[in-house]
Every structure is written in structure tokens, then in C-alpha cells.
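Need VOC family protein's 3D structure for a figure. Predict it.
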Amino acid sequence: MGAPALKAGHVGINVTDLDRSTAFYRRVLDVDVLGSSTEADRRFAFLGKDGTLLVTLWQQSGGAFATDRPGLHHMSFEVPDIADVHRAESTLRELGAEILHEGVVPHGEGASSGGVFFHDPDGIRLEIYAPSGADTATAPTPGAPTCGFF
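Structure prediction for VOC family protein:
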């Protein structure tokens, strides 16, 4: 008997300001609030699309995302095509988000897949990518995956 077939479920994220993060993720990922609580000691938001949960935000932390500690490296969200990545990049620029690598880039040298790499309001590293169409730009990290070092 082998292991059951697995697929990723939703991602839970600790945030410092639920309202700010909810607005950011809704705008960038084009998701809806599927459920929430605004009770002082139990603030959260469930975000998703077409009734499917994608991200949960939990207001229960202080400070900024620690990239120098073991744990989450980054989260990646796939979109159907590179035009969607460019739309996300435009939204990120409108929001003043920190965008890395000067915009949309391939996942590595010679790769067609790629996307935009950025930080959320708490410094969490994120990526929105498409399976193809990013090969018009130069890979920013020679000899290594783009998503590995940012």
C-alpha cells in the first residue's frame, strides 16, 4: 500500500495587520474573503477564489518575516500565462510593493517559466509565475534557480 496522493492545500500566514494584509492579498491575487473574524484576540481572514480556500491570514505576530531563520522560504502562486504575471507586476507597482529582480524574469538560465518575485507588507517572500513566456528576460542568478536566492 503506497502513500495517498497528496496535493497542496491552503497556506496559513501570520501577519501583523490583518486589514493591511487582507487588502494587499485580495488586490494582488484577485481573491475574495471567504470568511473572517474581527474579534480583538481572534482576527483572521480566509481568502480564496470560487469558494476554494487559498490563503488564511492570522493576526497574531509582531515584527517582520525572518529570512535568516529556518522555516518558510517563499510562497509561489501559478497563473495561466505571462500576461497575468505582468498584470500582477503592474498591481504590485501601484501598491508600492518591493519587487525583486527588476520585474518578470525566468526561473533560471534557458527556462521559459518564470514570474515576478516580491515581498508582502510583512516581508514574506512571494512569487507569481507562469509556466512559459518569461524567456524574453535574462535570468538574474546565473547557475542557480531564481526562486532560490532572493
